[in-house]
Amino acid sequence: MAVLNCWEFKKCGREPGGIKVKELGICPSATEGRTNGLNHGKNGGRACWAIAGTLCGGKVQGTFAQKFFDCLKCELFKTVFREEGNSYVKTREILAKLEKQ
Q1: What is the pLDDT, as a whole number, of residue 76?
Q2: Predicted local confidence at residue 101, as pLDDT
Q3: Closest-CA residue to 28 (of 51, 61, 56)
Q4: What is the 8-class DSSP label of residue 74?
Q5: Which residues on neighbouring strands pair with residue 55, listed in sequence order?
Q6: How many domains in the chain?
Q7: Residue 28: which domain range?
Q8: pTM > 0.85
Q9: How far is CA 5 from CA 57, 100, 101, in A?
Q10: What integer pLDDT is reported at residue 30 of this predicted model?
Q11: C-alpha pair distances (Å), 4 with each of 10, 65, 101
């Protein structure tokens, strides 16, 4: 199954080497190695809703608690949930990985 990471899905250009990096910087989801491979994504590309400080819509989205309900409405979140089916890595599992140093 070919899947898209958040920066590919949203076409934000905030991944390493992306077209908006000089202007806006790299999004934390593109470099969050603790979530690499979850939901078949690269780094946090398919777990971005659990990663603090992601930059969606051109602005910092804040902590998980601040942004999660907005993320539930996101088409990427819905797509990942649908595509992964029974293999979907639950948010609490993602958060547990992020808590590990």
Answers
A1: 96
A2: 64
A3: 51
A4: -
A5: 60
A6: 1
A7: 6-96
A8: yes
A9: 16, 22, 23
A10: 97
A11: 9, 25, 27
